[in-house]
Amino acid sequence: MADEEAEQDSGSVGGESGLLDIPSLKKRLLELETGLRESSQPAVEAATEYCQQLCQTLLEYAEKWKTSEDPLPLLEVYTQAIHGYIKARPDLTSECENVAFVLERLALSYAELLLCLPLELPENRWKEFQSFIQMAHTKLMQNGSCQLHILSVLAQEDGAWKNPVLCSILSQELLDWDEVNKFLAFEGPVLLDMRIKHLMKTKQLSQATALAKLCSNHPEIGSQGNFKQTYLVCLCSGSPNEKLMQEIADIDCKDALEMICNLESEGDEKSALILCAAFLSRQLQQGEMYCAWELTLFWSKLQQRVEPSVQIYLERCRQLSVLTKTVYHIFFLIKVINSEIDAAGLATCIELCVKALRLEANHLVVICLNDPIANLWMNLKFPLKFYSLMDNPPYLQV
């Protein structure tokens, strides 16, 4: 009876489309279910094979359509996949880790697609979605599967983006903080993170920034995800530098390095560079040595990858040197220039050495700088060209 209800409820959530061969998809899902039930393999191996074939089937159908042009057919594919999974779930052993993983990924993909729809689903189709997810979540919970929770949260609204509190946040209206806290706790970190990323992807930066800031400041939600990092990335993308510098003022550099590494591993090197430059600038301006070398090294590598131009790189080094308060920070810049640019950076290194001497012209610093300057100077093909950079040769007189 429940299966028949599922069949009925799942038939049209994604809408009608001549492109979809839904009968073929249903037939394939039924074959997978039958193969699982009749399998003579050990339970874990049979479950693993079912999950692999289900994923392969979804890929085959999903690759037929461009979601940016028409996402509704893919919505129907996900609906049928969940329906097929419900029927197969009693024969899937929980000892196979793929059983929970596949359903979780399916639920996240379904939720992401709903958030990405260019227009909200019509009311009748949204009601079909609500009915289907309520049935599916209840049925799967009976077998110990709670991975559709994120969809059940969405199904309790009147649309993917229609929650009145969410609308107030995104329009940056005056907020009722009790209602905001209830909304954030109800949605949970996963769904909120998906919303922010969608807003960023669609260039709705002010809305993404507003939501990310609330999430990062929430006592529970803020500790369950990278919302502070996401908020800073929003500021990197769309706000004046002064605002970013204010927000990073109290962030520990160890945490900053972790954020930068996260962004780099996610492939967002531009945001990683902006964030790294901001934290490095703070340390330079404050004369702080804490993590300054690590930040300088990260900044140098990222700068080279994001803007692979020697002249731009050297100019950025000069700009950072203006902020320095100690000779040690200048030494760090000289070191990365020699490492990254080598001979092309000799003139800039001499400029920085001169700045270091003028910054702190005591006997110890002069001794430390004389040999490096002399070596750099000897490596220049046309040293006289650079005498205009200083009043006297720095390694002869201070």
UniProtKB/TrEMBL annotation:
- Report the family membership: Belongs to the krueppel C2H2-type zinc-finger protein family.
Is-annotated flag, keyword Zinc-finger? yes
Q: In which domain of life is the source organism classified?
A: Eukaryota
Q: Which GO terms describe its cellular component?
A: nucleus
Keyword Transferase applies = no
InterPro entries attached to this UniProt entry = GH-ZnFinger_Regulators (IPR052251), TPR_Rlf/292/654 (IPR057986)
Q: Where in the cell is it found?
A: Nucleus
- Annotated Zinc finger protein Rlf/292/654 TPR repeats domain ranges read 247-363
Q: Which Pfam families match?
A: TPR_Rlf
Q: What's the protein name?
A: Zinc finger protein
Tell me the keywords, alphabetical order.
Answer: DNA-binding, Metal-binding, Nucleus, Phosphoprotein, Repeat, Transcription, Transcription regulation, Zinc, Zinc-finger
GO MF, one term, reads: DNA-binding transcription factor activity, RNA polymerase II-specific
